[in-house]
Amino acid sequence: MPLDPNFERIVSRHQELSSLLSGASVSPEDYTKYAKEYAELTPVADAVAEVKRAQAERDDLTVMLSDPAMDGEMAAMARDDLAALETRLPELEHRIRLALLPKDAADEKNAILEVRAGTGGDEAGLFAGDLFGMYQKYAGLQGWRFEVMELSTNDVGGFREATASITGRNVFARMKFESGVHRVQRVPSTETQGRIHTSTATVAVLPEAEDVDIEIADKDIRIDVFRSSGPGGQSVNTTDSAVRITHLPTGIVVSQQDEKSQHKNKAKALKILRARIYDAERARVDAERSANRRGQVGTGDRSERIRTYNFPQGRVSDHRINLTLYKIDKVVTGEALDEFIEALTAADQAERLGQLE
């Protein structure tokens, strides 16, 4: 079977780019543009070359097996090799199609993580703290930098809300399916009757926007300063270092008071604001594209229940892909979180491939 003509066009473009990059007359701007495209096409071109080698080997084996004088033992080995190739070729072609899927422009970006306690009182705050800790440990396992930007605690040591900046390779690509409502079922430490309680926490993972992604004009924001306060409203700072920024066109409000410096609080608040505006714009565009379709791995709606952590049964279930793991201890320490992330990524890829066919 001949290769898909689209594959051949990609190889031709890859070769063309190689020639352009080696030319002396290319401008610095064009060189940067061509180099980026070349790097994006290289995995596809390499995979196409591998398919061609496998097809040539298959054709050689077919010719060998058509020779009636071929030794019996050699023929058996050739048939085994041919069967293996026939299995491998569709896998190689599938890999090329995956590489050709449209890229999410935000996948390579860093992320802003926001975790908030939902329903369930103090237990919801404790669960929010557990989730925040899970992502912090997962970031450590990935070699990412996890910087706490804001923490608001309750009276029992749980979190009302917590925000962090996560920096590293492909952070948003790995974390983007974590957005939604997470539910926990367990016996709280304060429960004397041994009853199982159900609580929730909301997770939002926002791609970190840069100035080139979102430009915020001074006329579009209102900045208010006030004194930082601790639990219960007690003053923890004698200066007006806390900052509240309101984005007037969208109504998005961000407050920061963790730093003693007003300048640092303003910088953090603008970073979060830029991410929220960028995320809102992405959501609007995605909604227009998929007005008549709900995604297999969810809509990304913050109110959508996506996962349940059942401690008495030791299981974690992701409701979008019907995957349950009976290893809750390893999930909450971040060690087994990749099993969900890999499955969610694969489900998303399968759905998008289905839309192209």
Write structural notes for this entry.
With 357 residues, the chain is of the alpha+beta class. Helix content is 46%, strand content 20%. Strand 2 and strand 3 (159-167) form a beta hairpin.
List keywords for this structure.
46% helix; three-stranded antiparallel sheet; alpha+beta; 11 strands; 357 residues; eight-stranded mixed sheet
Describe how the helices and strands are arranged.
Elements: H1 5-22, H2 28-65, H3 72-100, E1 111-117, H4 121-142, E2 145-153, E3 159-167, H5 171-175, E4 180-186, E5 197-207, E6 221-226, E7 242-247, E8 252-256, H6 262-289, E9 305-310, E10 315-318, E11 323-325, H7 328-332, H8 337-356
Parallel strand pairs: 4-9
Antiparallel strand pairs: 1-3, 1-5, 2-3, 4-5, 6-7, 7-8, 9-10, 10-11
What is the 3D form?
A: flat
The overall pLDDT, averaged over residues, is 83
How much of the sequence lies in strands comes to 15-25%
Alpha-carbon Rg, integer? 26 Å
**Secondary structure category:** alpha+beta
Q: Write out the strand line-up for the largest beta sheet, numbering strands in chain order.
A: 2-3-1-5-4-9-10-11
Determine the number of helices (DSSP H or I, runs of at least 4 residues): 8
Query: Main β-sheet: number of strands, strand sense, barrel status?
Result: 8 strands, mixed
Report the count of strand segments.
11
N-C termini distance: 18 Å
Low-pLDDT ranges: 231-237, 291-296
| Range of helix content | 40-55%
Order of helices and strands: HHHEHEEHEEEEEHEEEHH
